[in-house]
Amino acid sequence: MNITKKETGDYGEQTAKKFLIENGYRFIASNFSYDRLEIDLIFEDPKIKTLIFVEVKTRSSLRFGVPEEAIDKDKQKNIKTASNYFIKLNREFRSHEKRFDSVSVLLVNGEWKINHIPNSF
After folding, report:
1. pTM of the predicted model, to two decimals?
2. Which helix (H) or strand (E) covers residue 5, if one does?
3. Element holding 37 (H helix, E strand)
4. pLDDT in tens, 28-76
5. Is the separation of the CB atoms in 40 and 13 below 8 Å?
6. Beta-carbon neighbour count of residue 8 at 10 Å?
7. What is the spatial distance between Cα 53 and Cα 58, in angstroms, rounded to a whole number?
8. Domains, the chain, ranges and CATH?
9. Which residues contact 40 (CB under 8 A, 6 or more apart)?
10. Whole-number CA gyration radius for the chain
11. Please, is 90 exposed, middle or buried when counting C-beta atoms within 10 Å of its C-beta (0-12, 13-18, 19+)?
């Protein structure tokens, strides 16, 4: 059975969300969109009053490289632009610091591996 690219991406986002919650982050939103720009996941680290904007990349092989390599400068700029709009809409987070993380979910030898990189861009 072939898994679609969307199903793989959805699985990766759910896996990343669960991983971050298990590591003490508070879930805020998923798939936040602004003017065709999207942020995959938004979390808060309440201990340090920081909003964390997360880009999730999922791959079922290394054929196209490691997942993190797909987060290019344009993608980073788009996420930062969307994050500013999110804060504008959600004023309760105005005094929070911002952080941009990546989470990659990669199938290795039949097992999904998670790599969380805080402050990745």
Report:
1. 0.92
2. helix 5-22
3. strand 37-45
4. 999 999 999 999 999 999 899 999 999 999 988 788 888 888 899 999 9
5. yes
6. 15
7. 17
8. 5-117 (3.40.1350.10)
9. 13, 16, 30, 31, 54, 55, 56
10. 14
11. middle
What 3-state DSSP class applies to 62? coil
Place of tokens 């004023």: 91
Q: Which DSSP category does 71 fall into?
A: -
Q: pLDDT by residue (tens digit) across 77-101?
A: 999 999 999 999 999 999 999 999 9
Answer whether 52's CB lies under 8 Å from 101's CB.
Answer: yes
The answer to whether residues 57 and 70 touch, using CB atoms and an 8 Å cutoff, is yes
Distance, in Å, from the CA atom of 42 to the CA atom of 35, rounded to the nearest integer, reads: 17
Amino acid in the structure at residue 95: S
**CB of 75 closer than 8 Å to CB of 83:** no
